[in-house]
Amino acid sequence: MSQPDVTSRGPDAAKAGSPGGSSSRWLGNTGFLVALVLIGSFYVIMLLAMLAADLTWTTPGDFIKALSSDEIQYSIRLSLMSCTVAAILSVWVAVPIGYLMSRFNFFGKGLVDAVLDIPIVLPPLVVGLSLLILFHTSAGVWVEDQFKEIFGTGITYQVPSVVLAQFMVACAFAVRTMRATFDQISVRQEDVALTLGCSRFQAFWRVTLPEARNGLITALTLAWARSLGEFGPILVFSGATRMKTEVLPTTVYLEMTTGSLEAAVAVSILMVFFAVAVLFTIRHFGSDRSLGRVI
Amino acid sequence: MIAVKNLSLEVGEFALADVSFEIPTRAYCALMGKTGCGKTTVLEAICGLRGVNSGSIRLMSREVIDLPPAARGIGFVPQDGALFSTMTVKENLGFSLDVRGRSKADVAVRVEKLAELLGIPGLLKRRVQGLSGGEKQRVALGRALAFEPDVLCLDEPLSALDDETKEGLIDLLGKVREETGVTTLHITHSLQEARSLCDMLLVMEDGQVRELPVEGKG
């Protein structure tokens, strides 16, 4: 039985079937592009306007005055210290997890993958509350007692709680970055290293980890930036005590609640400066693909 | 000698059963077959990079089926070379000796010798990113030969090269064979490569390996 000829549509048929002429098509394409630009530029302009508003709200004098107060200087020091420790811990943990998730298949991998994303999707306050409850269980109290015995300070409502709260969220982002980084590194190089005399650890240490150095820097920077912006978990788990557990977001909150908007804005501008520095670092070291999966 | 006997393995849905063949010592053997027939899987199993269900793999009369890749003494060159991109050409060439704890002087002497053999003495200080396809494969070959392996496994090392570069590398592989006498298993899709280099030709078809005569070789 003969089949209907469905392949006989030549250029003429295509021309006859195309809706509208070239001018209406040009108008349609232009309209589409204009709509894209208008919607996109609204968001970009809002972002820039926010930053500009911050900058115009305060004067250099107010900025210097705010930053010279003892409380804010303590807050800056604690932020820099806690973010750095949290970021280093995050990368320390993210490298083995990212490598395992990238290179090995195992029972329950999907579940582990979902668990690793919990800090990203969980409301920040819930992270803080969960930490607080964890350290009120018998196991948590035991850990805190041991910690106190070794380091001479407790965890809850003390400086270590700030680092822990920052670490719990930042680590999830570092894990994602490291996993994306290891996914991009060909397993072939490790295979070759194994045949050349390496153990699995040597292949990882000598070949894979050096290949992952840009990803490591991106993960470290991203974890640092996430830690710097962390507020909810710290408020619940560490409290907002001046000169004790006060980090920069806490300072903004405390200054605002006491009506000192100039100081709040000055600290916000400082955080904007840190954020921009982080953004440039990530843009410089991170590949588009790894960032696309992470941010 | 490479002796594979009753090798069975599974990779996801793909399975090979009772694969057997033997390549004599110092022979240069080409393994051909359609894409996806399992050539690379067998080569990876020989190198220890893929687990097997059962069977035996003997290299120079030594059973290696339970040995890790590092202990098998095989030089492996994958299709893309897989050079270590954070290292220089010199570091790539000396890698296996460095892992074995050889002295820097020993490594330097061996690397110089290899660079002469491969025709790349001018590239030693360069990073691998800027190398051409042919140069990369020369370095990958040198890296695999550095620790003087008993067996060399090449997985389509010339497939991504232009004809002129390919000719140069075929000449080089012939020279390496002559100078080292290393027993070689070379996966290829090209009859020209096989005829130019090999004194033994294996074809993989329907999960089995059989030997074919090499035309033009007495």
Structure overview:
The complex is a heterodimer of chains A (295) and B (218). With 295 residues, chain A is mostly helical. Chain A is built from 16 helices and no strands. Chain A has two domains: 36 residues; 236 residues, Orthogonal Bundle (MetI-like fold), CATH 1.10.3720. In chain A, 79% of the residues lie in helices and 0% in strands. Chain A starts with 10 loop residues before the first helix and ends with a helix. Chain B has one domain: P-loop containing nucleotide triphosphate hydrolases (Rossmann fold), CATH 3.40.50.300. In chain B, 33% of the residues lie in helices and 27% in strands. Chain B is built from six helices and ten strands, in the order E-E-E-H-E-E-E-H-H-H-E-H-E-H-E-E. Chain B has a six-stranded mixed beta sheet, with helices on both faces. In chain B, strands 2-1-4-5 form a four-stranded antiparallel beta sheet, with no helix packed on it. In chain B, a hairpin with a 2-residue loop joins strand 4 and strand 5. In chain B, helix 3 packs across helix 4 and helix 4 runs parallel beside helix 5. Chain B is globular, with a radius of gyration of 17 Å. The interface between A and B is medium-sized, with 18 and 27 residues.
